[in-house]
Amino acid sequence: MINGKQRTFGDVRPVALVTGGAKRVGRVIAQHLADCGYRIAVHANTSIDEAKRFAESLKEQGIEASAFKADLSREDSIKDMVDKVHFYFGRIDVLVNSASIFFPTPLDELTSEDVESLFQVNTFAVLSCSRFVAQRMKEQATGGAIVNIADWSVQRPAKGFSAYIASKGALVTLTKSLAIDLAAENPAIRVNAVLPGQVLLPEDAGEVKRQAAIDATLVKRLGEPEDVAQAVQFLVESPFVTGVCLPVDGGRTIFSGQFDDASVH
After folding, report:
1. Keywords assigned by UniProt (predicted)?
2. Which of 52, 115, 137, 179 lies in the 20 to 30 Å Cα band around 237?
């Protein structure tokens, strides 16, 4: 929605594909875009049943939506998903690469399998999703917008997460490179990224960790998934912004009083 007006292309509402859209931050992003008038393609893999229920709830809200399954570790599965989304809706205007995996990777315990799995989903899948969706966006006069979800920690890494942070750090360079390459194909295609701070506390986080997360910000409050969703909307609907990696972290990246305990990552 722009200036209070629902965004349309003629009589057609735009379509947003959100990877990892069945739960957590991805679900909030998908719901926010639905509230802004976008039709929603919800991607999931192991959470496909939850994605289908979410799509049904969107339909009950009057939003055209459907769930699509893909294994992001397989390029053929990604391409098949993109083809099915385009066939179902007839277009793809927005791609939000929200799907991600996250686990500690202490150096003395790190395995090649850990590195491969983190980069496969957090980095390579983003490139593949973007590449296949961009093939569709290039056909559209209106182009499209791609938003990658990286992580604030690429600027101030926490101990014990080197492989994860590297997989997310690659998205900063990838975002800028894709912005250049895809603009050469269609100047109406833009690529940006959000670098969220902590917007979801661990389920076992107590009051001490909660307060530490608050104290680590300049704004002195916890972040929320909706903060990320609002940033995504801004990047999607700002036609003069591309190649930007936007921290959404309450000022934590620049705050000298940071709290770098990985347990409140």
Report:
1. Oxidoreductase
2. 52
